[in-house]
Design a protein that fits this description.
mainly alpha, Arc Repressor Mutant, subunit A, Four Helix Bundle (Hemerythrin (Met), subunit A), 2 domains, two-stranded antiparallel sheet, about 60% helix, elongated
Length: about 260
C-alpha cells in the first residue's frame, strides 16, 4: 500500500523487537552463558506485551541457538553464548547438505592456513602466545611417534593451535571452523586403527613432525614468507592427504554437534 505516494514501511513484529533486545543482552555479555533469562512475568512488565509475544520471542532465540527453553513448573530459558564450535557445526551442516567432499575442505585449508601462519609470524608477542603451544605440541608428537592414533590427534592439534594463535580474531574464527570440522572428520575416520593409512609408517610420522618443526622455526624467527611457504609445501606434499581414507566422501557435520 502507499500513502501520499510513499511506501508504508512495515513495522517489525513486537516479538522480533523483544527478541532483538534480549539477543543484544546475550551478545554484549550482560547475560552470561548458562544464565537464565528473566522470568516471563518480569519480561511482560518490562516490555508491556502479551504472553504469546514473549513465547514467540523465545522461539526466535531458541531457533537461533541462543537459548534452550525448559518447560514445566521449574522451567526457564537457559542462555547459550555463541561459540566457535557452534559456527563449525553450522558450517558443517551446510557443507553436508551440499554433499561437499572432504577433499574440498582440505583444499580450502590449503589456501587459507598459510595466511594464518604468516600472521602468527608477524605477532610481536609470538614468543609468549602461539610458540609455547606449538612447541609443546611438537614435543608431545615426537614422544608419541610410536603410537599412530595419539600421533594423528596431536598432528591435527598442531594446525588448530596455529590457527587459533594467529592473532587475527576473524581469521581464527573462520579458518578455525574449518580446522575443527576437519579434526572431527579425522576423529571419526582416521583414528580407527584399521585406517591409519600412510600414518601406519613410522617414517611418515617422523617426516610430518619435521615439517611442523620447520613451520615452527619460521614463525619463531618472525619470517612470514617462509612460514607461509612451509605450510603450503606441507599441504602440497600431502600433509593432510596422508590420512589414507577416501577424501571423496561427504563432510560429516554430526561429529561436531554441540
Amino acid at each position: 500500500m502507499t500513502e501520499g505516494g510513499k511506501k508504508r514501511l512495515r513495522q517489525p513484529r513486537l516479538a522480533e523487537i523483544v527478541a532483538s533486545s534480549l539477543r543484544s543482552r546475550i551478545l554484549s555479555g550482560a547475560l552470561g552463558d548458562g544464565d537464565l533469562l528473566p522470568k516471563q512475568d518480569e519480561l511482560l512488565a518490562e516490555f508491556g506485551v502479551s504472553p504469546p509475544c514473549i513465547r514467540e520471542a523465545f522461539r526466535i532465540l531458541e531457533t537461533e541457538g541462543l537459548i534452550t527453553v525448559i518447560r514445566g513448573n521449574v522451567g526457564g530459558a537457559v542462555i547459550h553464548v555463541p561459540k566457535p564450535s557452534t559456527a563449525a557445526y553450522m558450517l558443517g551442516l551446510v557443507l553436508q547438505a551440499r554433499k561437499v567432499p572432504l577433499i574440498d575442505l582440505v583444499d580450502a585449508m590449503r589456501l587459507l592456513e598459510p595466511a594464518c601462519a604468516a600472521q602468527a609470524a608477524r605477532r610481536t608477542d609470538r614468543a609468549t602466545t602461539v610458540l609455547p603451544k606449538l612447541r609443546a605440541n611438537i614435543d608431545a608428537s615426537l614422544a608419541a611417534v610410536d603410537d599412530p592414533s595419539t600421533f594423528i590427534g596431536l598432528a591435527r592439534a598442531f594446525h588448530t593451535e596455529l590457527v587459533s594463535g594467529c592473532g587475527n580474531e576473524t581469521m581464527s574464527l573462520v579458518v578455525g571452523a574449518l580446522e575443527k570440522l576437519w579434526s572431527a572428520q579425522v576423529d571419526e575416520l582416521a583414528l580407527n586403527k584399521s585406517v591409519h593409512g600412510t600414518f601406519a609408517d613410522r617414517s611418515v610420522r617422523l617426516s610430518l613432525a619435521q615439517e611442523h618443526e620447520r613451520i615452527y622455526r619460521a614463525i619463531a624467527e618472525g619470517d612470514p614468507l617462509t612460514a607461509e611457504r612451509a605450510i603450503r609445501e606441507h599441504y602440497t606434499g600431502g600433509g593432510e592427504r596422508r590420512h589414507g581414507f577416501d577424501t571423496d566422501i561427504t563432510v560429516i557435520a554430526e561429529s561436531l554437534k554441540p
